[in-house]
Amino acid sequence: MDWVQGDQNKDDYSKQIFEKLSKYKGFNLVFGQISDKETEESFLLHISNHNQEILDSQEPLIIKPGVIQGMSNGKINEWAKVELGIDLIESSLENFSDICTSTIEEISQEEDNKLAEDSKLDEEQSKYQTF
Rounded to whole angstroms, how far apart are CA atoms 34 and 43? Predict the structure, then answer.
């Protein structure tokens, strides 16, 4: 709740967390910010005492946008069950994307057909107009 209710920047908050990290046997924290009108920066960060790279650098891991990640009680993407979950989510998103693309193409074709019919109707009506 410190991050949500506080007003610290990500660097100060990360430093505070790293100072407390040794107090915990197992620890994972993901926190971030979605950009708004006041700030243009969006980020998602991960701090863990399961990841030696993070511990050595004392810097949070940056979670890149558009990449599906998963976490259990270890490192990000470490366990087979997490990898399976990621695969299932990616597959679902691909299927959803295919469905959306098909639907958009169908709607577009219907609109094109309607415009063509309207154009033919306009041509027919113009033949019968008298001035």
Answer: 7
